Design the sequence.
């Protein structure tokens, strides 16, 4: 099946109009030596019906979807109202590009403006951008931004920050003279404040921490921000589970200067890790250092309100190598989904959603904690994830649970060698009491 | 005197107590003093409260204020705004994919891994490279990843070097990406044909130069016919050649970057491979490399062991992770669907007819609009407003007037070497009728520029808003809604 | 001088050899001389040939030339244009339902049968009837089915009788349906309150009258408060009472037709139960009956045997089949979803707020527009153009002008007893803001009628087309595209 | 979950504006005696998530979808391109009503105009309407129409016409002095022409037959039409499998005066029997007797083309009891699906679709015919269905096949007592060779 729209007659007439005999002649400027003289080695063309069968068959190879799963760790299974799918799939949102021509892009631009507003409200900060790629690169952008703002060359990364986020930060900074230092955690699963105090110094650009952190534990954002500010470093709060902002005090109010992270929880499917939605909010005074697109309000010649992309002097297409970031295409459609999701749940809905997550996780933590051979690893308060330590090595337990059709959690040893036989268990509103009890029952059987 | 309904911000129609979604009642025993000791918020101040009727109407109305590929020709140069097949949208959201979790162990997500591996394999064949990484989230991310790979390879050779050469016609992301990799940029002048000037290149190429970033066809839509010579020059002095594959739509099945001396390149799935642009993403910018750079690819790499797909983290020389998880998966599914649908012949036809359509437009507008570079065009052609300037009309005026004719304007922000550029890329999915509608509109506008320039300067006249004051927007930034106090 | 793009007919952009869909290659051995001796066609003359890009653009553009509930208030009286929940659209198309075949044996389609049975049960409770049949495809089909049931019941009593009484305010389908059942229609005059005139009714009610077809609330939006007395009069003379339940939206949870003497009624799922109107269907018009009429229900009837659902064909007295299979199933799924979502309180709120919204509009427009009947309104109110007529402005002009204000006009074609009627039904899903936008527009139009009547007579001014010549359309019918020869 | 859009504040203020204390007062005109004094006995309200779970669980009770099925008989499993689903689900098509206000309904009206044109092209007749409910009621409407045109009171119904269609015709005519007589079929599975000759007379309004008929056999439309015309009766051709019109000569060209039937095959899901799509086309001269809505072309004040509903003097809202039909709401959205489907497949696609159906059915007929104990019942040419007679009683065979996950066909005995142990087998383009062979294999096992 081809998606061309030219009839054979069209092709003939157009080639004639160009005075060439065949499309081949159009490529005369390509040295014959390098031209491909054979057909590409690709599978034969498929009709729509064949394609559907092929892809559905590949999909069925994901045994995952036939399990009861308690995986989280940066990608969360949340309820997505049907309006989000319906509205975000409209061609008028799916098939345009970045709104370079505001007069014919007011739909997209107003959505971005509403998105920025919602992110500011959630994070408790002044300004937000139109989106970044995802949580890890958003964290890296925040680090680079902190360096530009403070002109300091060390960043402290809490070890409770998503391991993959830390890896990405290191990949980004390794070529530009920025050093990253890990800050350990304490028995409560939170950043060890004394250790932080010891590593913080005048060369520290930012303290970067995640809350709720990778262990699901809520950090003391105020204390960490105060510590950072004590050395004139920036407090950069990462949020990987955006739904938590429905219940927890906003990091902005607790002193964070930059709040960035992952918006997947807000109406974007888990979809094997992407596309997701990096978001970033910060204080007004850092506006000129903010990466990414920003929509702003203005007026047309008749004085009617309209929206445009603005402050682009920060960006690569104007600033070239001196831009605040190289990002161009971002995650527009995911930001649209998040906007519809947030406006659909609304003030009450998002709060209740967050509350139910916390309630169900609390119940699950107790329930699992009561299973012999299972203990809650950290004492700190958790949102919708928690770490359990098991009497048997995790790989064995994992296999045992899978035998019962359950994926019980994410084994932490690979990312945290010290956390032998520990697993991260996530419980969102999508898990029913029965399912939680099933997990507890299964664990009991596997451990006994 | 017609009162037009303007779409309010959602915050302006919010009313306390309304909601568009409810949750099941909590089915677990309630935990008292939940999150004891943690600072909780009383409410999300300013967050909207509306009904489902209102949400649906708000976004349905907003959607109708967008122009899009589903409504007509979208000749935005360098962006390859081709048609996005609907079946790919559906398949990319199959439940088996939508729920699959990136932290699940390999055996449980063999289907998702097969999708990744298959696309890597097909892209290698199409681009003539030895390996691909699908991690990058967009083209610029691909550039950054690619330049990191080059740096890693050169470091392994003993010297990362200082400079990256970039033609003056390049897209802004190129220098920006090189910069983040710790390189300084040296610009290479284009010659009168609009291609890289070989002398100039030889002059700047030294053993302090890490790489050349070349876009081919370049942003003038011109094929760098000396590309092999160019690669030789770079390689001779120990540099590597990076190709920005944003314009791959002109080459599929015709010539493979890997066969013309390219060491690293990125491809935009949201251009060449028809994944939708989504109003500004999500995209996907896979990076392809030659053997020498394979050891440095970002982790994890998808491997195969005993007929199963595995995640390979054991890559001592890797540059590390460039993002979380494995790339923009559902975008990758769409691109895979597209290649499977087209097959070998269809993939070649992409380039054949993208180039035919572009040249058909060029042929019909030549004379009406100034063409700075008369070198043969590939998939796009770059006119300028030189002729119309005489009547006090700029490319911006022409662009805005095109809106009145019901068609999206071309790209104007670059290439910087053409002043008042009108960069036109129709793509291969357009019909003759839509091409002719565009040509007729452009001709009519050329006429209007002479006879009635004011109608251009005051355009657009039929849009939801007339020309917007972008200067004021930047001067007095209003970047969010705030409750009137 | 702006050239607007008019959407061509698909036939006008068709080009030989184009296609938007392909099939897999035939995978069975080819049979020579297939269908030997059968007259085969060479081609489907005139059938279109276009690409998927063109199909998508054609229908996307056409869709934007429609006003719809998803865009705003749609106060089309008697049609109950309420919001159509998106989740119901999705669930009605679940693969398990979409593929289930109507000729499959019962054990294989228990889910589909459960859907039917559940909705029947819930409708019985809501309407206060003893049984429901979901076969009828729409309201008119329900009327026909219901009148056939009445005829069958009367025949069983010994005499089918000759006449059916229908108030002069009734919808056109009522007399038409009665007619197809072999009855002659006698009109019953309404009194000054707009309700059935009891004396008039007593005068016409004889033992030759089979039934009264009453709409309650009637098409004036007025509740027939003498309904019990009316039913007595009909029953006393051996007649039956049929209720047109099109206006059930005013009654849900408040009063049940079965409790006020109704023997048979139909309900429009595409009104009261929020299934979409689809630009003119599909709808669904379930018929509810009292015990006496149960034996005559159309076959098959959904029965239950040993906890399984079964199709009961053993109904000797049935009127027979009224359509193939079992009704408009996916519409029925939507209605079921709606009732399950709302629950008892929600179903009652339908009526409470449908009536509140209608009265809010009435209150705000009284005085501006003439209200022939001042009896309390239920879910809709019927104004007329009497005041505006003085300025040479008709209800049609008012309606067309409303389009300029971005709102769909009210119903004007009936009730016939109100000349120049403007029948306004907002429904319960509207926001205060949308109600006020409508009220403001209607007030502004009332003002314009005085000050600038011409702008009404020449309306609409902002639509894709201005007022269309309906007379010419009927006089010189062009009912299909034909190739220009 | 409620779909109201009023806040509590709105409600209070609006009630106050009306000078009433509560919504209850709005129902004062309803006699207290009949008012419902209790809450309705309905299940408790469900949130979207609960609803989805409830309905999906009901759906899973359809074991049907886990079988390989060869059912047809008026409801056909055909491929539906994704564009059909996407475009027909746009709110602008789904949520308006009948285009009473043409200026804001040009989308719907142009679609109807294109639909009418496509139906004319398929059927080979002059005019078509905007749709009727479905095939059976469309057949009944055609019968009533024939009576109006001829003022005769007898209709002949081929026994090869879908049994349910015949039942519905009888339901419709029983009260209006119209008599229906069945015409038998011959060993070729077609209408018995001699028997037809004998029953045809001056009182015959129409000969009503289906082609391809209920047995899948293609009737001799020309001969049947000639016979009807010989007695000045109308030839009414019913098409239950619209896809066949891609390959078979149009009934209009073969003499049919009215062609009506079921359009489900054209992009409408099987969906347990509805909603479907009745269509009707006829000769120009019968225009005034045609039931249902009709869209026509006209001009606006500026002379631009536009479309309107026209000739409504035929309809109930003008004509009341003297209308050509009582139909009001029809099947608009299904007609839209059919229009998109036909335009997507186009001239080549629909022809190839029909051809593949015939080819696969032919292969299946041979393949099954070669199974011991299976014989093709009728000698007439078939499209995509055929009748097999089995050596064992059908119910036993059916059970046997189901045991192997196959629904082999539709047993005919209930509708045709004389066709003991016969079943109707349908094979569309959706069936692969492997699946057909699986059926043959299974039959062999069950019968041996
Ligand atoms: C030539 C060229 N290079 C690179 C890019 C950047 O790609 P992306 O926007 O996907 O990051 C673009 C984007 O338009 C481009 O046109
Ligand atoms: C009062 C009334 N009765 C009956 C009908 C016919 O219902 P349907 O259009 O579903 O056949 C309508 C349709 O608008 C109506 O308003």
Sequence:
């Amino acid at each position: 099946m081809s998606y061309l729209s030219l009839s054979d007659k069209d092709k003939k007439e157009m080639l004639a109009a160009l005075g060439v005999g065949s499309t081949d002649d159009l490529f005369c400027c390509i040295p014959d030596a390098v031209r491909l003289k054979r057909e590409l080695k690709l599978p034969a063309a498929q009709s729509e019906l064949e394609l559907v069968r092929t892809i559905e068959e590949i999909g069925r190879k994901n045994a995952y979807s036939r399990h009861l799963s308690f995986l989280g760790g940066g990608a969360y299974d949340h309820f997505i109202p049907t309006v989000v799918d319906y509205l975000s799939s409209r061609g008028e949102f799916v098939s345009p590009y970045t709104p370079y021509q505001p007069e014919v892009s007011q739909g997209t631009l107003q959505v971005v403006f509403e998105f920025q507003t919602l992110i500011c409200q959630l994070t408790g900060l002044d300004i937000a951008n139109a989106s970044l790629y995802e949580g890890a690169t958003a964290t890296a952008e925040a680090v680079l931004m902190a360096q530009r703002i403070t002109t300091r060359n060390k960043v402290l990364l809490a070890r409770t920050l998503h391991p993959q986020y830390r890896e990405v930060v290191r990949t980004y900074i390794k070529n530009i003279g920025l050093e990253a230092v890990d800050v350990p955690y304490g028995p409560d699963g939170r950043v060890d404040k004394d250790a932080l105090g010891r590593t913080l110094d005048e060369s520290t650009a930012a303290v970067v921490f995640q809350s709720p952190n990778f262990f699901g534990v809520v950090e003391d954002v105020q204390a960490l921000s105060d510590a950072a500010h004590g050395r004139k470093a920036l407090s950069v709060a990462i949020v990987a589970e955006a739904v938590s902002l429905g219940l927890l005090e906003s990091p902005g109010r607790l002193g964070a200067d930059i709040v960035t992270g992952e918006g997947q929880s807000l109406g974007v499917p888990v979809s094997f890790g992407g596309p997701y939605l990096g978001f970033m909010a910060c204080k007004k005074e850092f506006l000129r250092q903010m990466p990414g697109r920003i929509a702003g309000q203005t007026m047309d010649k008749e004085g009617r309100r309209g929206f445009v992309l603005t402050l682009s002097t920060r960006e690569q297409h104007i600033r070239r190598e001196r831009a605040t970031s190289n990002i161009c295409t971002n995650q527009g459609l995911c930001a649209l989904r998040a906007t519809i999701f947030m406006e659909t749940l609304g003030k009450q809905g998002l709060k209740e959603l967050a509350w139910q997550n916390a309630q169900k996780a609390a119940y699950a933590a107790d329930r699992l904690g009561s299973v012999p051979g299972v203990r809650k690893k950290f004492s700190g308060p958790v949102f919708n994830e928690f770490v359990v330590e098991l009497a048997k090595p995790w790989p064995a337990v994992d296999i045992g649970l899978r035998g019962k059709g359950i994926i019980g959690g994410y084994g932490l040893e690979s990312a945290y060698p010290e956390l032998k036989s520990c697993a991260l268990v996530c419980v969102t509103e999508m898990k029913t009491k029965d399912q939680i009890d099933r997990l507890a029952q299964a664990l009991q059987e596997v451990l006994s | 005197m017609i009162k037009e309904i303007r779409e309010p911000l959602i915050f302006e129609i919010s009313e306390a107590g309304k909601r568009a979604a409810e949750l099941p009642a909590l089915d677990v025993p309630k935990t008292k003093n939940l999150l004891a000791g943690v600072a909780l918020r009383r409410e999300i101040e300013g967050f909207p409260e509306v009904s489902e009727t209102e949400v649906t109407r708000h976004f349905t109305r907003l959607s109708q204020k967008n122009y899009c590929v589903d409504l007509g020709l979208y000749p935005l140069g360098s962006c390859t705004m081709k048609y996005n097949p609907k079946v790919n949208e559906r398949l990319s959201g199959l439940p088996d994919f939508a729920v699959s979790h990136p932290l699940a162990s390999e055996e449980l997500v063999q289907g998702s891994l097969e999708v990744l591996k298959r696309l890597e394999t097909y892209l290698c064949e199409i681009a003539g490279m030895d390996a691909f990484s699908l991690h990058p989230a967009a083209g610029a991310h691909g550039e950054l990843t690619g330049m990191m790979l080059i740096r890693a390879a050169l470091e392994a050779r003993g010297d990362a070097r200082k400079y990256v050469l970039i033609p003056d016609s390049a897209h802004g992301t190129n220098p920006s990406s090189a910069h983040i990799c710790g390189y300084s940029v040296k610009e290479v002048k284009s010659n009168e044909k609009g291609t890289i000037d070989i002398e100039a290149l030889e002059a700047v190429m030294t053993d302090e130069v890490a790489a050349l970033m070349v876009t081919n066809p370049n942003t003038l839509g011109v094929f760098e016919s000396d590309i092999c010579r160019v690669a030789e020059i770079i390689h001779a002095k120990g540099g590597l050649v990076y190709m920005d594959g944003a314009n791959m739509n002109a080459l599929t099945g015709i010539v493979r970057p890997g066969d013309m001396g390219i060491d690293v390149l990125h491809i935009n799935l949201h251009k060449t491979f028809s994944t939708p642009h989504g109003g500004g993403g999500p995209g996907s910018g896979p990076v392809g490399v030659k053997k020498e750079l394979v050891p440095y690819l970002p982790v994890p790499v998808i491997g195969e062991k005993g007929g199963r797909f595995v995640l390979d983290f054991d890559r001592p020389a890797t540059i590390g992770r460039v993002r979380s998880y494995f790339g923009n998966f559902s975008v990758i599914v769409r691109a895979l669907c597209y290649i499977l649908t087209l097959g070998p012949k269809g993939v070649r036809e992409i380039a054949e007819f993208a180039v035919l359509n572009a040249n058909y437009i060029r042929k019909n507008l030549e004379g009406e609009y100034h063409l700075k570079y008369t070198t043969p065009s590939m998939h796009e052609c770059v006119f300028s407003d030189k002729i119309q300037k005489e009547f006090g009309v700029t490319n911006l005026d022409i662009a805005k007037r095109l809106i009145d004719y019901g068609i999206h304007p071309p790209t104007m922000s670059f290439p910087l070497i053409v002043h008042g550029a009108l960069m036109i890329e129709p793509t291969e999915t357009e019909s003759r009728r839509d091409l002719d509608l565009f040509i007729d509109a452009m001709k009519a506008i050329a006429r209007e520029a002479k006879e009635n320039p004011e109608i251009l300067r005051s355009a657009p006249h039929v849009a939801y808003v007339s020309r917007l004051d972008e200067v004021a927007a930047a001067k007095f930034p209003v970047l969010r809604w705030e409750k009137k106090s």
User: Anything to note?
Assistant: Chain B has a mean pLDDT of 97. Chain B touches chain C at residues 1-5, 13, 15, 51-54, 56-57, 60-61, 64, 70-72, 83, 85-86, 404-406, 429-433, 437, 441, 444, 455, 461-462 (CB under 8 Å). The two ends of chain B are 32 Å apart (CA to CA). Residues A 328-329; B 78-79, 138-140, 171, 173, 215, 219, 244, 246, 268, 283, 285 surround pyridoxal-5'-phosphate (ligand 1) (CB under 6 Å).
